[in-house]
């Protein structure tokens, strides 16, 4: 008699992975969680909102996963997955509430899947949200053995009258950049083309470890910042770099004028430029050391930077808002 296992799907390994995953997911549970892992759906109680708007975002990790496969290090890319989603919804002032993940593979290894979820769990704790469910799909013949894909979905909430949508941005407002932790999770197809030796030394670190540094999650410092200052707009600097992402915070026709010498560019980006990538292309692909940008009144810029620094963040006044055709000017 032909079995599911003979077709390439090991149900017992799936049960084992779920058991391991539950240990990581349960530690993220927050007050609003009212369902248990293993239910058909996750449930979350909104709590004390007057007129809540739900804000959602979904994303994956992309080809950064290929580096994780080669290094056989799986416990950081889950952080990336959460970061890509919660940082996006944060741009509109939303507090992340809960997260769901999706993992697909050719042949399931329970320990590897659990390591992926361990990273997701850590990301959720950094983002202050609960991991309330997910899906693990074993798909033999569709994915090669040893390959995994991971994607996620985050939901947050914000009071309707507190949504940050760029409508209050004016000419002369300051743009404050907050440092990234490295490359984050974008541009890795280009990274892998440029850097093939993952075991090479790079300024005293293993190159593979440098490339696998997880994406910084900005939720907690930004939430504290919103309590003290009027934030007019925010941008998560992901794929498309400066040119695509910073102007996304503008509702009107404004240009972001950025001083490229106003912040520290990490050595990994400088190294990639020595391998033949133009500066303009780098700024159009990578975060270049600035992972998140907030727009504030110019008079508040110094205090905003001091506040971020008191929370352990590196922050810089990187430019200002200018009226005119929507876009970005790098000076």
TrEMBL record:
Keywords: ATP-binding, Cytoplasm, Ligase, Nucleotide-binding, Purine biosynthesis. This is Phosphoribosylformylglycinamidine cyclo-ligase. It holds the Pfam family AIRS. Belongs to the AIR synthase family. The keyword Ligase applies. The keyword Repressor does not apply. Residues 53-158 form the PurM-like N-terminal domain. Gene3D superfamilies: PurM-like C-terminal domain, PurM-like, N-terminal domain. It catalyses: 2-formamido-N(1)-(5-O-phospho-beta-D-ribosyl)acetamidine + ATP = 5-amino-1-(5-phospho-beta-D-ribosyl)imidazole + ADP + phosphate + H(+). GO terms for cellular component: cytosol. One of its GO terms (molecular function) is phosphoribosylamine-glycine ligase activity. InterPro entries: PurM-like_C_dom (IPR010918), PurM-like_C_sf (IPR036676), PurM-like_N (IPR016188), PurM-like_N_sf (IPR036921), PurM_cligase (IPR004733). Pathway: Purine metabolism; IMP biosynthesis via de novo pathway; 5-amino-1-(5-phospho-D-ribosyl)imidazole from N(2)-formyl-N(1)-(5-phospho-D-ribosyl)glycinamide: step 2/2. Its EC number is 6.3.3.1. HAMAP family: AIRS (MF_00741).
